[in-house]
Specification:
This protein has three helices and three strands, in the order αβαββα. By secondary structure, it is an alpha+beta fold. The chain has a three-stranded mixed β-sheet. The longest helix is centred in the N-terminal third of the chain and has 14 residues. The protein is globular and about 40 Å long.
């Protein structure tokens, strides 16, 4: 409980300290989108209202891409 909120707050804190952050999720709900000021998360990288990047990952697509790179 609270993992998404903690991850989003860490991303905000690191961004404020000048770090580049990509916050990725495999969750299908849009709770992270709401926390980051976006309408919906996309499979492409988006910039959040706080200045860090956010992306929704589809596990099946990631596995397929990994297989393409390795094989």
């Amino acid at each position: 409980v609270g993992r998404t909120t903690v991850a989003a707050m860490l991303a905000v804190a690191l961004t404020r300290r000048g770090r580049k952050v990509l916050l990725a999720t495999t969750a299908t709900d849009d709770r992270l989108a709401w926390l980051t000021g976006l309408d919906r998360l996309q499979p492409t990288v988006q910039r959040s209202a706080a200045g860090f990047d956010v992306q929704r990952l589809a596990p099946s697509q990631c596995l397929q891409e990994y297989g393409t790179l390795i094989l």
